[in-house]
UniProtKB/TrEMBL annotation:
Alphabetized InterPro entries for the sequence: RNaseH_sf (IPR036397)
GO molecular function, one term: nucleic acid binding
Gene3D superfamilies given in the database record: Ribonuclease H-like superfamily/Ribonuclease H
UniProt-recorded name of the protein: Tc1-like transposase DDE domain-containing protein
Amino acid sequence: DACEIIHPGKNHDGWWTNNKFVEQVKHAIQIFKHIYSDAVAKFVFDQSSAHGAFVKNTLNTKEMNIRPGGKQRKMHNICIPMDNPNPALHGMQQAMVFPTDLPTGHPDFEFQGQPKGIYHVLEECSLLSVLQEANGGKVVGECQTCKLSCEAQEQMLHEAQMLANQQDFMNEKPLIQIIIEGAGHKCWFLPKFHCELNPIEMYWGWMKARECCSKQMFQLLIK
């Protein structure tokens, strides 16, 4: 079966990681396919970091700098959505990384092969001018007000939030969901902070009570 037993700790198996979890799910999918070849499986997960991990090149403004270069991830290309203010750009591919063969005189020559950053991406997809107009001609990377105020975030008055609200960024899925749906099955995530919706938590609580209490005390607990 797909059961995995580990012994975490120093000089042992190490902690349960997303990579191990992904391999376990792939194994479970193969088992399900062998037993129920014509059925669709429904996988349900809680909101742990291992379950919700994304691929390395996923679109995430929190992993981007405002300016190009520096320590930021290289992300996959995006498709400019149909609600972009510039109709000429609708459906076009937009690279998130500068080409590696920029000519010597190019203004971004020093950043060839490096991530563009939020400012450049917004400028190329005609969103920077929209942001400037909405913010009185001024643009900021991320302000303290927007970090604290939900109302301010909804107004999209800073670069990071505006880019994060674009369709490609909002539609990104965790790696495990991509794998499961790619195999033709369903993947659902339980809402955060609602462990009572997860049956395994009830069973885990029962097991801890059984292990921590004496047999006599356990009998009292289950009555």
